[in-house]
Amino acid sequence: QVQLVQSGAEVKKPGASVKVSCKASGYTFTGYYMHWVRQAPGQGLEWMGWINPNSGGTNYAQKFQGRVTMTRDTSISTAYMELSRLRSDDTAVYYCARELAAAGTLDYWGQGTLVTVSS
Amino acid sequence: EIVLTQSPATLSLSPGERATLSCRASQSVSSYLAWYQQKPGQAPRLLIYDASNRATGIPARFSGSGSGTDFTLTISSLEPEDFAVYYCQQRSNWSFTFGPGTKVDIK
Known about the structure:
The structure holds 2 protein chains of 2 kinds. By secondary structure, chain A is mainly β. In chain A, 0% of the residues lie in helices and 50% in strands. Chain A is built from no helices and 11 strands. In chain A, the strands form 2 sheets. In chain A, strands 2, 4, 5, 6, 9, 10 and 11 form a 7-stranded mixed sheet that branches. In chain A, strands 1-3-8-7 form a 4-stranded antiparallel sheet, with no helix packed on it. Chain A is globular, with a radius of gyration of 13 Å. The N and C termini of chain A lie far apart (40 Å). The model of chain A has no long low-confidence stretch (mean pLDDT 97). By secondary structure, chain B is mostly beta strands. In chain B, the strands form 2 sheets. In chain B, strands 2, 4, 5, 6, 9, 10 and 11 form a 7-stranded mixed sheet that branches. Chain B has a 4-stranded antiparallel sheet with strand order 1-3-8-7, with no helix packed on it. In chain B, strand 7 and strand 8 form a beta hairpin. The mean pLDDT of chain B is 96. Classes of the chains: A mainly beta, B mainly beta.
């Protein structure tokens, strides 16, 4: 069965960077785009961007361009999202999610990783 | 960027009642519209994709309709486990956006 397992919670200081991992299993990792979505406490869902695990190509939401980097390691079926120059309003749960066969839909989600930015 | 608006923000209903949730796009998204359910402390779950197709394992009481700019998610008869927040999401020009969500709570 498809599973996306994310790394554990992080606490970072303002100005630092965080790197969240998402290990995929149960399907061909390189066959599906991987997206990252975040959710601030009590707020809605915010799309951050995607990576094509096959080519390494990426597309980032304009809001995060220059601060986010999405990468992957196909040898271990893992995607990564790194966010730099953290601010307090980056405190959120970060999710990875698989795109359903280029359908523009996210069919499987990781469990989420809480990133807390606090001095 | 295409903006999605959802209404109402909150829907207060009783189990067994019909729920009708609306999602409106600032410009046409064709049929590239999905709906997700999220419960507290959980990741979102895909319900509907391409406006009207139920995802695997989703009960038949959930249905989606619409195209262009106006979409509807209908829950024909609310079960206790359906009280949650519902988000619509669109894809255009390789980018995604989500609506602000509709909370369905118990009346």
